[in-house]
Amino acid sequence: MDRATAILMVGLPGAGKTTRARHLEEHLGALRLTPDEWMIPLFGQSQPEGRRDVLEGRLLWTALRAAERGLNVVVDFGLWSRDERTALRWLFSAVGADCRIEYLPLDHDTQWERIQQRFAHTPEQTFTISAEELLDWRARFQEPTTEELEGAPPPAAPQPHANWSAWAAARWPSLPDIYGCPAD
């Protein structure tokens, strides 16, 4: 069986992650998992309190199972924190899959214009974002490091977590902590 590849889509809203993820889905015959496409149909709103993390955990569990069985996956979450990306790189390695980051940077003005256009044309597929929220999100976003983009081995998980599987299970409550050490 061929090794699967997991592609982690990284960037802020409006960066073009989902457009790129759809292209990768078609080009690679991959399973694409985009939480924004699930939130409104399941919960009737795009940001119901506490439910996004639960949904993302189940989608990640599905992605890991698919990758373990040799299917390429595209994880279209945004993944703003370095720890989220590190945990997923570690987890995909643990199930025997390759993993790479697709980072789509963009400047503030372009981002704001795209967000406004998206809401104007497809309001049923998105949610409102204020200018203040956008600035706050940009401040919280951690750009991928050169090491991440080049696929350097992940560092050890932060304490008190035994490994990145335990960290991920705490971050995404519906993702089980069942993954051992990454495969070589």
Structural write-up:
With about 180 residues, the protein is α/β, with parallel strands linked by helices. The chain has one domain (about 5-170): Rossmann fold, CATH 3.40.50. About 45% of the residues lie in helices and about 10% in strands. Strands 2-3-1-4 form a four-stranded parallel β-sheet, sandwiched between helices. Helix 4 packs across helix 8. The longest helix has 18 residues, at about 50-70. The two termini are about 15 Å apart.
Quick take:
The protein is 47% helix and 11% strand. With 184 residues, the protein is α/β, with parallel strands linked by helices.
CATH architecture classification: 3-Layer(aba) Sandwich
What share of residues are in beta strands? 5-15%
Report the total helices: 8
Please state how the strands of the largest beta sheet are arranged side by side. Answer: 2-3-1-4
Low-confidence stretches: none
How far apart the termini lie comes to 16 Å
Shape: globular
Mean pLDDT: 90
Largest sheet geometry: 4 strands, parallel
Q: Looking at CATH, which topology would you report?
A: Rossmann fold
Number of domains: 1
Helix content: 40-55%
Order of helices and strands: EHEHHEHEHHHH
Structural class estimated from helices and strands? alpha/beta
GO molecular function: kinase activity
Region (Disordered): 144-163
Pfam family, one: AAA_33
Protein name: Putative kinase
